[in-house]
Amino acid sequence: MEEKLKQLHQEASEKVKQSTELKELNEVRVAYLGKKGPITEVLKGMGKLSAEERPKMGALANEVRDSIASAIESKQQALEAAAIEKKLEQETIDVTLPGLPVKVGTHHPLTSVIEEIEDLFISMGYKIEEGPEVEKDYYNFEALNLPKGHPARDMQDSFYITEDILLRTHTSPVQARTMERHGGKGPVKIICPGKVYRRDNDDATHSHQFMQIEGLVVDENIRMSDLKGTLNLFAKKLFGEEREIRLRPSFFPFTEPSVEMDISCKICGGKGCSVCKGTGWIEILGAGMVHPNVLEMAGFDSEKYTGFAFGMGPERIAMLKYGIDDIRHYYTNDYRFLTQFGRAEFN
Amino acid sequence: MFVSYKWLEDYVDLSDITPDELAEKITRSGIEVEGVEVPSKGIENVVIGHVLSCEKHPEADKLNICKVDVGEEEPVQIICGAANVGKGQKVAVAKVGAVLPGDFKIKKAKLRGEASNGMICSLQELGIEGKLVPKEFSEGIFNFPKDAIVGEDALQALALDDSILELGLTPNRADAMSMLGVAYEAGAILDRPVKLPDLEYKMHSDEASSLVTVEVEAEDQNPVYLAKVIRNIKIGPSPQWMQSRLIASGIRPHNNVVDITNYVLLEYGQPLHAFDLDKLKTNKILVRLAHEGEKIETLDDTVRELKSHHLVITNGEEPVAIAGVMGGANSEVTDSTTSVLIESAYFAPSAIRQASKDHGLRSEASSRFEKGVDPNRVKPAAERAAQLLTLYAQGEVLTGTAAHDKMDKSEKQISITLEKINRVLGMSLTAEEVLDLFRRLQIEAAANQGTIHVSAPTRRGDLLIEEDLIEEAARLYGYDHIPMTLPVHETNPGGLSPRQNKRRLIRQVLEGAGLMQAVTYSLTNDAEAKEFALDVRQPVKLLMPMSEERSNLRLSIVPQLLESVSYNLARQHDSIAYYESGSVFLNEQGSDLPREDEHLAGAITGLWQFHAWQGEKKPVDFYVLKGILDALWERLGISDRIRYEKGKEDQLHPGRTAAIFFNGEKIGFLGQVHPSKEKEMDLKETYVFEVKLEAIYNYQPDALAYKAIPRYPSITRDIALVVESSVLGGELERIIKDAGGTLLKSVKLFDLYEGDRLEEGMKSLAFSLVYMDPSRTLTDEEVVKAHDRVLQAVQEKASAKLRG
Ligand SMILES: [Zn+2]
User: The domain at A111-346 falls in which architecture?
Assistant: First the structure.
């Protein structure tokens, strides 16, 4: 009997080993461990054994059965794993094919430049002020020390609606309005972005409509050195730490002294190239100390208060930052243009 | 202003400084030098030649065979096509091997069988602008004076070996509209003295005032008028050096008298006018305002009608010049003139500006009078002209001037404390340093107990207030020396206003949803100005537009967005999604400024989703755009206050237009562009929206507060309702919501069916209704009760039947 059990064990083990499918393995299970299987048969014949041998044979039979069951079990796991693997392999896809496109829009490059400048100055305690694009002659000119008949009015030919109303030629009227609202009390610390209009024929470098962004600080003891320090900070943040600035004398009716700010040319590092016309410097913005007439007209005591103002064109800044060569690109909304500015920049 | 470097050397020692170095220094301390031109650049080997003989070419009518002495052993033969070439002339000869502007190389040539070894040049061929070439040489070659030395460098003789600095003058620096003004500037920068012209000359003992009388009626406009009288002059060309300097400065030479007045204008910044004294007839000058409608023929052969605010120079009877603008033809200096009256005057800037504008005439003279000339140069300039007329027109100058002079020529006194200078600049200059800066500027200044007293010279009309002195000192000291500091004051937090934050949120949401930000023009044409307007009214118009295309301020953003769409379609880009926010402009009764409303608009066309290799292709439609807007309302916290209704807009598809309401007020539209408009603009199916942002900006949603997550299950009931096709889904949804009561938490449309299985004119809408009570588990009975109310309501209000 012992022989028989050992033989069955060997036979079953062999069959388990040879099984390649779950179905086959199940047949082995039924054949050897089923109620009508050979091991059950062996156990049925136990009655003929002596009382001494019976427990010994019983234990052996159980041992054989457990061993076969465990072999089947592990084989089953192996077969199942193989089946899953096969299925997964069949499900393999080409991960290099294009994904489902997600439509993503972007800021217009002018908005990007304006928001960047706004955020920089907000971090220094400035607020953003806005005003009307159709302005009174008073705020656009007179309150800025440009009385009627002033020769500097020639500098900016404008679009009039009536004799006293026009499309603003700069964002400076927002400064005049804001100062007036402050009723002669500082501090005023603002950034004014917005659209402005001038009588220019549209070409690669001129546009009858464009953007401007200006800053104004009015308080007691505001110095020209504060203007220079602020502009230096701005230039380094916007154009890179290694940029240098310089101020050149200039003229604006609403500031005295007036300056223009250049930054050292990024392309040639200051040696001179075609971009900077050989000078090593690129003109970025106009600025100055607020003219006492402007302070007085807005209700500030110009003996007590001083201030500085600066203004620049986002079109020009974006042109310099990104190398854009034609101002008209900003207003045609060509997808081939706009989509180039989808990538975020982290400075 | 063009400044000849060589000319400037007459007044300031520039021996150790190159034109480029000078330009850089001038730019850094006050006046932008926009360029430095060397007129002889690119020209080589041009000499003065003497035409020994000149004969017609036997084979060609228009060609001449010239033998020219160019200072070499043998004369050279040159074929010249100029009509004015002739024997005996001194001419500019480009020798074989010479180079002319445009890299034009002169080589040996043969013209119709005759050798030509060089070229006789016109001034244009030497790079001088045609409009600056003296008239007698403008159609042919140039002639040097008879005493020109053969073989010498022609460029030197023409003073083309100069450097011309182009100054970009700001309106305040009218003082630099003269060579002397520039000399003072250069002198200050280099800390060198300025050498003024020596005004000595021989006078005739007759008094000018005994021959001529000057009377001024309009003293406000003309406080000083001086007349110099010069007799027995000989009209002829002015000396070559003077002509060269005029050309370098952009003025065409005429004859010695005219050239001298122009030369003094450039030198002193004081415009002069020469009258032919004999043609003046009356020996009298009367300056007055014109009579309305009075006429004068000016030097440009134009008859001009005058207005009563125009200042005129008359001979006591009729006008002989429009003051400061242009002389009259009746008193013009010509070749036969023998006596001249030289006018030197101060005319009020505003009067000249107005007259120059009215007559459309801007000249070297008017542009200087407009900015105010130096009252203290009126006389020296007249004397300088008289001196030059004795030297170069053999004139006989009468003693003194005939004058009317009520001009205040005193210097403006300005005082400023040293403390203020340093406070404004953020520096610590000493009184000595400040005084030294004014010394360099040749401006009188003195310090007394911390105050600097400055006497501002009349040549510097821009120095009026303390701040002007601060700038003057600082620019000369150098802005590089100003330290860099930041404002020291009470710091308030910066930031965006709620409105500005909302604007940025809108950008984020719409861009996240796939729309590209566009920026278009505010000015548009008549037709487009009114299209898609949410507030229909007359657009705001420009008084003087540059073109019809840009003559009105927009009432809507959509038309320009559609232009941009069309622009891209024409460039093979056919899937487009834009948004733009910005002002529209509304004429407002009783307000001087138009109202500016901020609008938000969008336009989409083409494919919304396109995944080619999976074959997924979703074109844009109404609901794509509506979904984006709904996301926006959600982020703005106003979803529950927005309502869509069937709408009607002229330029939109009548069946595909929604009106958008916020808090019960119409704020915008959403719909498909009308197919006829699409066709007109060559658009494909395009959906647009535009909404007013003002009410949304002003609305403050409730503060965010957490609501407990429900702990009890909800019960969902689906119903399919059959209604007439005209019944709106939104309407049905509202009826359901109203009837469902507090237990009904949500209603969602999940199916729309119109087809064969329904009666004609009917449709089926299937909704999923979710009932819930956050505080307990609902019983079936409660749900049934609420649901029955819903069914009853839809039947009563929309004749809806449950679909069997
Ligand atoms: Zn460079």
Answer: 2-Layer Sandwich (3.30)
